[in-house]
Structure formats: structure tokens, C-alpha cells
């Protein structure tokens, strides 16, 4: 870090000397014009000059003004005049008293003003550092925090430009803030490091012809660099935490996938194997009804296995961003009728009631909408009690078509109605509640069509799965909270 140069210190001392000489000379001229014959009036004017010199030039300005004023008073206002000799003892006492008083007043005033300036600067620095600490803890993006840091240093330090070059993890940041119409002067470079590891640099460029920064300004820059280091370290740790959380979520998803697939593949396979083994046993005589029941079981479990594999493939498409609907004008009532016909065996234990109104054709992928209806009806059938009712309605709603599948099952608590749309999240109200993929696939398809889907309640305590599809072609939408 570059310190104050010797030339800069010399400029400060020369300025103090010039002020210390100019003020008593000016006071002498004024005294000669106003009271050329009165020594007391000249002393008062020179005391005022000492005060002014101390205020403008500091301690050295006050000291020089006192000594030069003492000499000028002796030369112009003390008998014999225009000499440095003093004839009267009282004049000697007066001149010495003036010198002592002037030195004391000048030094005390310069010290008071210096302490006042230091207090103002300390308050400014404390406010600025407090602002830095607040920005570090604000949680705002790191680049915006660094931009605010650089901008906030311009005015207090009188900089023409402030640059921050740093890195946090794999990210590199270069931020520059400057004041317009300011020519660049000398640059002060402060390292940004933490724990001995250098993270970047803070570059403060002074305004041309204003000299370098003083020690107090350099200390403020060092403190700002420490705050910048904390912000960079926090960003790095936040990234590590996010990566660790993502890895944990990924591991949980993998464990859920393994558990779900293992269970849901094994169950239908076990039923298929048991049914086929019974049919192949030559020493067991089966009636026609028994053979048909075993074959029906094999067929149902095969369909169940096929749906599970299809959902897994669709989930892979969703995560690969390859779920793109092939839209065409489609009559949703016809799609619903085909789904109900195909799922008749699965819906045999419930009463299905439909409510269809005059619905225009909708630009959708009929195969994907078929899958949405299949997944929702499968959930409704799984959670409905024997003899319960499943109501399916397809009605126009504003600029869309709304499809509602309501059951009379145990329902989903309001706090879980958004969570069940996540992959592998199952409903726990019914044993063998499924793979937890149906609603996730349904939401992905509806969103790909520019619609939305959510769960609600029903007056009887069941669940209503509702989705809307726009009547006109729409871009994929973001799911709104239920």
C-alpha cells in the first residue's frame, strides 16, 4: 500500500508557512491603514491574524503567524520604529506577552480545530463502516454489494475513481465507480485479504492536483478492504452451503428414487410372477373363473408396471428439458371419454360422474393431456373409499378451460398441497399410495402448455385436483403457489 509521499508532506508544510507569513503581513497593512500610531490596536489585529492562521494552516500556521507578527509589531509599531530595537521596557513586556499569548492561542485553537475535524471524520468513518457491515449482512448479490462499496467511498475520500477487483470461489468481479468530470491523479492500492489469503485489490484514485490520501483516509481504506473481504468470504461460504444443500437434496432424491422404484417395481412383478406360476403348475387344477382372475391380475399389474415405467421416462424428459408438447386443436371431452373407457377396470369400485359444458377445442398435445387425466383419475381412484364418487368436470373459465377431478377421500392438508407436486412425495393416507410421480408429471405437462395446476378441498372432505389450459397457444408458465 502506497503511503503519503514526501512531496505531499512538503506541500502541506509550505502551505502552513505561506499562511503563517501572509496573515501577519496582511494584519500589519490593515493596522497601518487604520491605526498607524496605536500599538494596542495593532496587537489586537495581529492576534486575530494568529487565530485565522491557526484555523487555516494548523499549528505550524499559528506558530509562524505568531513569530512573524511579533517581528512586524516590533519593526512598525514599537519605538524606535523601523528597527528591531526596543527602547521602552514596557514595550518589551508587551511584545513578549503578545508572543506568548499568540503562541498559546494559536496552538490551542489549532488543536481544538484538529480534534473537531478528527471527530467529524471518525463519525463519518463509523457511519460508513456501519453501512458496509449492513451491506455484508444484507444478503444482496455480491456484485451489487461491491458496487455500493465502491460508490460510497468516492465522496468521503474525494476520489475520482474507485475500483474493486476480487474473486470469490470460481467467480471473478471487477467493479468501477467514478465521478464525472474528474481527472485521475495518484492511485492508492490496498490488498483485500483474509487469513493471509489475497482475494483481490481495492484501488482508490485521487483527483488530479489534490495530492495523495492522508493516514486517516488510508486507515478507512484498509477497514473498507476488510469489509470487502468479509463480503467475499460470505459469498464463498454461501456458495459452499448451497452446493452442500444441493448435494444433500440430490442424495435424498436418489434415495427416494431407489426406494420408490425398488418397491413399485417389485410389487407388480411379484404379483405377475405369482399369477404366472399358478397358471404353470401342472399338478393344480384351476377352474375357468380362477384362470381368468389370475390372467386379469397379470394384466392389471402389467399395466401398473407400464404406467410406472412411463412416469419414470417422463420424469427423465422433464429434467432433461425435453418435454415439448406437440399441440393441435383437441376436444377435451373426447380425450376424457377415452381415458375413462381405458381405466374402467381401475375405476370399478367408485362411481364416476362427469360434468361437461360447451367447451371449444383447445391447442394441446392430446397424448400428454391424456396422461394428466390418467394420473389424476388414478390418484382419485386410489384414495376414494369403495362406493365413493369421483366427479370430473370440464368447463370454460375466462380465457381457458378448467378441468376438475374431485374425490371423496381423506383429503390433503393445506400445508402439503404444494409439496405433493414434488417428485417422489407420496400421500400417506392410503397404504401403497403410489410412486409419488403422478402429480409431478401432471404439473410438468400442464406448465409446458402454459397452464397451471393446484390442489383444493371439497365440501365432503376429499381432494380436488384442478388444472387450467389456455384457449390460445401460450408459452410455458411458472407454477403459482397453490
How would you describe the overall organization of this protein?
By secondary structure, this protein is an alpha+beta fold. It folds into four domains: 6-118, no CATH class; 139-243, GAF domain (Beta-Lactamase, 2-Layer Sandwich); 257-316, Helix Hairpins; 323-470, Histidine kinase-like ATPase, C-terminal domain (Heat Shock Protein 90). Helices cover 56% and strands 17% of the residues. It contains nine helices and eleven strands. The chain has helices at 6-34, 39-77, 89-137, 142-157, 215-280, 288-319, 332-342, 366-383, 438-448, and strands at 159-168, 171-178, 184-194, 197-207, 328-330, 351-356, 362-364, 389-397, 400-406, 452-457, 463-470. A five-stranded mixed sheet has the order 6-8-9-11-10. Strands 2-1-4-3 form a four-stranded antiparallel sheet. Helix 3 packs antiparallel against helix 4 (142-157) and helix 4 (142-157) packs antiparallel against helix 5 (215-280). The radius of gyration is 44 Å and the shape is rod-shaped. Mean pLDDT is 79; it is low at 1-7 and 428-433.
